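RECORD TYPE: protein structure
NAME: ATP phosphoribosyltransferase
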Amino acid sequence: MQSLPQINASAWGGLGRPGPAAACPILRPPSSVAGNNSCFSRPQPHLPVLPEGNAVTKSRAAQGSMKALSLSRRAEDGNGVVTSEVPKPKSLQPRTTLRLGLPSKGRMAEDTLKLFNDSALSIKKPNPRQYVAQIPQIPALEVWFQRASDVVRKLRYGDIDLGIVGYDMFAELAEEDEDLIVVHDALDFGQCKLALGVPMTGKFAGVDSMEALCNMPQWTPETPLRVVTGYHNIAKRFFERAGLKNVQLMSADGALEAAPAMGSADIILDLVSTGVTLRENNLKEIEGGTIMQSQGILVASKKALLDRPGLLQIVHELIERFDAHLTAEQYFSVIANMKGTSPEDVANRLLRVPGLEGLQGPTIANVYNKNENGEAVHHVFAATICVTKKRIYSAVKALQKIGGSDVLVLPMTYIFNEEPVRWKNLLNALKLESKDVH
Ligand SMILES: Nc1ncnc2c1ncn2[C@@H]1O[C@H](COP(=O)(O)OP(=O)(O)OP(=O)(O)O)[C@@H](O)[C@H]1O
Ligand SMILES: O=P(O)(O)OC[C@H]1O[C@H](OP(=O)(O)OP(=O)(O)O)[C@H](O)[C@@H]1O
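PREDICTED:
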């Protein structure tokens, strides 16, 4: 997954109403900054830190906003506008519980629960209105249900130690937070991409690429390209990299696809999955207009992994269980009876056909039937192989061609490998060795 370069927030003019991930404080008047809690929950890691005790800090303190101010660092963007940022705690919160944040609603919530269920982990929620749950198989871990964007925020603030979110959300809200690490980058749900949606008609009729969009003469400081999106941080980095300066980012809480037709924006930047919503609203994708692919990921706080006893072992178990399930999902187990002079003879026939070699070669077993005296005698061989689901039909045909009969195709539940690559990568990133994890 790509990591996009940073952009100086001051290069951006005229931001609209902030969305879930908007750079909310940038163009707000100083008087609205310290008193607005929503701003405190939207860190701006790109902004420089001002020296303590600037005029705004003092005046807000005098108005009794001391508590909020003591939570904030002062920062100023290139326009001289003061903003605020919630500092990350320097040390871990003093708690003994280990916490995992999961999306509480929407498509991510359902898919996440399914993943746990498929990985033989049951999530027990005492009642639907409660936000905390338990996993009986991992009693040391508390589950906290949160909105997807809050999962990322709470990870950043140390309220939770692990979380499942879409990569898009992580990239928008936390990719530059060095404490956070993607532990599993492909949970195989929530697949979508973040892409520009450009009107099919009007002045955009012939615009089919980013290059063409950037070269349109219309975009000036007075008439910037108006982009409605909930992904302001990603959008800023993207347009900066594309070299398009005259852009105005705007926000909406939903139905972004309607904005160009309503005239409130020129184009949109939003998630696309099937592409139906874009099409139904007369919008198109353009070449170079896809910013990233996304799917569900498991994220962790490095600090928590290193310092909270038992957390790394839990992450190890989660990676193993998820990977065992996700790998098995891609395969069928196939068993076929085969005539032959020996196990090697049958194995040779299978190994010669691409797609019939199984994971590490076929297993060949004896199949017995009864003779006239009722005694078991060797009859044929049974070959067992794993076949990718995508190629199941061609594999069965190939098996039959080399003498396979009575072909059984069975679902696989788990494939546990020795040590998942993702676990090894995590240990490397944390500069740990397996022996360090008890
Ligand atoms: N059309 C889609 N197809 C597949 N995945 C999607 C799609 N739309 C969103 N997602 C994934 O689901 C995540 C959550 O999206 P969803 O729309 O359920 O929540 P949200 O509206 O952003 O959250 P909330 O309403 O809690 O603020 C997104 O961050 C993305 O990773
Ligand atoms: O390419 P498609 O398959 O049509 O999916 C894309 C749509 O899905 C998401 O919206 P969602 O359905 O989650 O509704 P929302 O606008 O309330 O977020 C996204 O914001 C797009 O509008």
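COMMENT: The CA atoms of residues 276 and 283 lie 10 Å apart.
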